[in-house]
């Protein structure tokens, strides 16, 4: 392999490394940096509890038909909605366990095909 081929290989590898690093950084930077106390009126299709890891703040991320909404985790309506969604998650988990033998995964994210209005 001559110098020109080595240099070309180095440039190509560097290019792909930069793309991979940029993509990883973008995924990590997607987080709630601010929260709203405003009650959500859109249908909620799921949620995720986000831990505080600066610059991300502690929040409940509700997924709606229009996208994600960052809500303050201490709001009464947020706590009630999370409790309601976790109950539905438990019911769905029990139903799936009764209808399938595949192992089920449990986490702090809830999502369903149906939507909920609050």
What does this 3D model show about the protein?
It is a single chain. This protein has 118 residues and is α+β, with helices and mostly antiparallel strands. The chain folds into 2 domains: 30 residues; 85 residues, Beta Barrel (OB fold (Dihydrolipoamide Acetyltransferase, E2P)), CATH 2.40.50.40. The chain is 43% helix and 21% strand. The protein has a 4-stranded antiparallel sheet, with helices on one face. The chain is extended, with a radius of gyration of 21 Å. The C terminus is likely disordered.
Q: What is the 3D form?
A: extended
Q: Tally the helices: what do you get?
A: 2
Count the domains: 2
Main sheet properties = 4 strands, antiparallel
Q: What's the CATH class label of the largest domain?
A: Mainly Beta
Span between termini:
66 Å
Gyration radius, in Å: 21 Å
In CATH, the architecture of the largest domain is Beta Barrel
């Amino acid at each position: 392999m001559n110098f020109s081929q080595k240099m070309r290989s180095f440039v190509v590898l560097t290019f792909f490394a930069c793309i991979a690093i940029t993509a990883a950084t973008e995924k990590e930077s997607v987080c709630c940096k601010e929260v709203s106390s405003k009650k959500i009126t859109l249908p909620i299709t799921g949620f995720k509890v986000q831990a505080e890891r600066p610059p991300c703040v502690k929040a409940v991320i509700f997924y709606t038909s229009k996208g994600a909404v960052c809500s303050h985790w201490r709001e009464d309506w947020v706590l009630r909605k999370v409790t309601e969604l976790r109950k539905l998650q438990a019911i769905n988990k029990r139903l799936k366990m009764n209808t399938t033998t595949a192992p089920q995964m449990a986490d702090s994210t809830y999502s369903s095909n149906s939507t909920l209005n609050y």
